[in-house]
Amino acid sequence: MRQEHSHALYQGLVAGVIGYAVVALFFMVVNLVEGRPAPREVAMRQEHSHALYQGLVAGVIGYAVVALFFMVVNLVAGRPALFTADVLGLALFYGVADAGARAIEPGPVLAYNGAHLLVFLLLGLAASWLVFLSERGPQFWYIGLVIFIFILFHMFGAFLLVTEPIRAAISSWSILGASLAADLAMAAYFLATHPQLRAELARTDA
User: Fold this and answer.
1) Nearest Cα residue to 180 out of 100, 83, 95, 62
2) Residue 4 has pLDDT above 70, yes or no
3) Which residues are within 8 A (CB) of 99 and not within 5 positions of it... i.e. 6 or more apart?
4) Is the torsion defined by CA of 42, 46, 49, 55 positive or negative?
């Protein structure tokens, strides 16, 4: 009975997230087609608020890319789509290094995804702040790039260290691939929303 209730809770949460994503994407597409920017509150019209908004969006993008990457990897390997989230949740929050053959439960999955989303929101805010600085002059661009690479390098190393006990279930190449995919997606978002940054990069390449 407990497993049935957990499964029903999990399905309800997944359905809610799907509905939220569909509605959000629908209105974003409508706004873009009508020539309006992505929706944001009036208070976010100032530069700092706009940077905060973009940092949060970039964090969600990075989180979604990593989640989808591991889901695809798991499905290709013949495992449940949420296998990685379940294993990481068990290892990080329940102290279980060997999940073995067991059914996916919502507790570890939700715990890991909550922490995962929080980390990427913080990373997105840091990246947005660095982009904000880089638009103030070329010297800030190089400083921001160095700081961003420094942060990414240490976050990747920390993740490898944390996942060492479950390396048999999650390979290093998949971690690296997911990280690179998220970085590229976040960078593409910032370039798309910052024409001044694109112009600065074009002048640098020239």
Assistant:
1) 62
2) no
3) 86, 87, 90, 166, 169
4) positive
Among 199, 93, 83, smallest CA distance to 141 is for: 199
Q: At what angle do helices 83-93 and 47-76 cross, to 10 degrees?
A: 110
Residue 103 φ/ψ region, left for φ over 0, alpha for ψ in the -120 to 50 degree band, beta for the rest: beta
From the list 152, 159, 175, the residue with the least C-alpha distance to 70 is 175
Report whether 74 contacts 83 (CB < 8 A).
yes
pLDDT on residue 42:
41
Overall pTM > 0.85: no
What residue has token string 């420094």? 150
Residue listed under structure tokens 């999955």: 109
Strand stretches in 102-151, DSSP E: none
* The pair of three-digit structure tokens given for residue 126, joined into one six-digit string: 């840091």
